């Protein structure tokens, strides 16, 4: 999956959706309306298959027995930035599965330097670690798995603490 900056958003989403379904995954939800791009939420029961497909160096056992996992595919538009954020109830693992992307991380609210994530790059984000996914000069497609750190209160979209946001959210 490699889309130039000139590829229309609806074309990118249609192609990404085709790849996801051709791999046998069920899309549980999707959001194409984010100002930075959007995402596909995959059926949680397919987390083992998602890990096997995108994170073959890991096993479902690496996450702890019975741990709730949430697989997603993020689609970040060229020259767009997600909020500078962190989470109280999840860690995340990302892998670039299409195009390239950038990331900034930090243990504090101060942003460090941009790191370019080439195709195939995997990054682990700890619970509470500040991070920002950034679209570079083409569309970035990221396989993401949430590792919920509070089994009694799993993370969700409300578990986003935004330190800074280009879109005023």
Automatic annotation (TrEMBL):
Entry coiled-coil feature ranges: none
Q: Where is the Mannose-6-phosphate isomerase type II C-terminal domain?
A: 49-165
- Which InterPro entries does the entry link to? Man6P_isomerase-2_C, RmlC_Cupin_sf
Keywords assigned: Isomerase
* GO terms for MF: isomerase activity; nucleotidyltransferase activity
Q: Quick check: keyword Hydrolase in the entry?
A: no
- Please name the SUPFAM superfamilies in this protein's record: RmlC-like cupins
Keyword Lipid metabolism included in the entry's annotation? no
A GO BP term, please? polysaccharide metabolic process
What protein does this entry describe?
Phosphoheptose isomerase
């Amino acid at each position: 999956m490699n889309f130039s900056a000139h590829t229309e958003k609806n074309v990118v989403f249609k192609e990404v959706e085709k790849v996801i379904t051709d791999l046998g995954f069920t899309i549980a939800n999707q959001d194409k309306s984010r100002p930075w791009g959007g995402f596909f939420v995959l059926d949680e029961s397919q987390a083992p298959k998602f890990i096997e497909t995108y994170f073959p160096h890991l096993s479902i056992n690496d996450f702890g027995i019975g741990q709730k996992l949430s697989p997603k595919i993020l689609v970040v538009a060229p020259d767009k930035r997600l909020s500078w954020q962190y989470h109280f109830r999840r860690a995340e693992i990302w892998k670039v599965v299409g195009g390239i992307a950038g990331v900034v991380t930090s243990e504090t609210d101060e942003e460090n330097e941009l790191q370019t994530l080439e195709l195939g790059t995997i990054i682990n984000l700890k619970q509470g670690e500040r991070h920002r996914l950034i679209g570079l000069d083409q569309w970035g497609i990221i396989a993401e798995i949430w590792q919920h750190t509070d089994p009694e209160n799993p993370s969700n979209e409300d578990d986003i603490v935004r330190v800074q946001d280009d879109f005023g959210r």
